Amino acid sequence: MPVCIICGQMFKENKQGLFINGHYICPECENGVVALSADDPGYNFYKMGLKKIWCFSNA
Ligand SMILES: [Zn+2]
User: Ligand 1: distance of its center to the CA of 14 in Å?
Assistant: First the structure.
């Protein structure tokens, strides 16, 4: 089972979410990323999660 690359939450079939290059992002984090602005307290948290995807993609 895939887990959210940002928060580690397990994929739930009834909740869907987002897959980027085979990496799962849960709906909560997906919404969080979409709503982010640079001065948001959660910005770095999500940015770090997304960075993991970019790192894997570029590897
Ligand atoms: Zn998540």
Answer: 15
**CA–centroid distance, residue 35 to ligand 1 (Å):** 14
Greater confidence (57 vs 43) lies with: 43
Parse the chain into domains and list their residue ranges: 1-59
pLDDT-derived band at 1, boundaries 50, 70, 90: confident
Amino acid 2 reads P
**CA 28 / ligand 1 centre spacing (Å):** 6
| Angstrom distance (rounded) from CA 21 to CA 5 | 12
pTM for the predicted model, two decimal places: 0.67
User: What does the alpha-carbon distance between residue 10 and residue 15 come to, in Å, rounded to a whole number?
Assistant: 10
- 7 within 8 A of 26, measured Cβ to Cβ: yes
